[in-house]
Amino acid sequence: MERAKRRRVRIVDSLEAARGLFAPALTRARDERLYVAHLDAGRRLIGVRLRFAAEGEPIDLPVRGIIADAVALDSNEVILAHNHPSGDPTPSITDIETTRSLLRAARPIGLTVRDHLVFGGGDMVSFRERGLL
């Protein structure tokens, strides 16, 4: 009898779990990157999408692309994470405004934006902890 391959299920149900998912890729990155983790109803990771910024440009938050991926993956929640190569993890006005645009677009399809994390200089800022979501 052939054994079925077991896929490791990753649960992302806390800030620490989200930090553990994104920190290895974002704490040392020299270019700006945006990751979007897609989660199912049990907060199991079902997909991660990555976008790079153009050299010297800030990262673009692709609201339409995130919504399209969420529909394609049948996501219940997303967690965004990006880095500020400058070393300052403070969310910019643009970070806040585009995240709010995503919140408005996600609401009608029942998609929850669980958090948006910004990494920089070895630190991390959570939009949820700061009351920005």
Automatic annotation (TrEMBL):
Keyword flag Transferase: no
Entry annotated with the keyword Protease: yes
Annotated ranges, domain MPN: 10-133
GO molecular function, one term: metal ion binding
InterPro entries xref list: MPN, RadC_JAB, UPF0758, UPF0758_CS
GO BP, sorted A to Z: proteolysis
Keyword annotations of the record: Hydrolase, Metal-binding, Metalloprotease, Protease, Zinc
Top-rank lineage group of the source organism: Bacteria
Name the record gives this protein: MPN domain-containing protein
Naturally occurring in which organism (per UniProt): Sphingomonas changbaiensis NBRC 104936
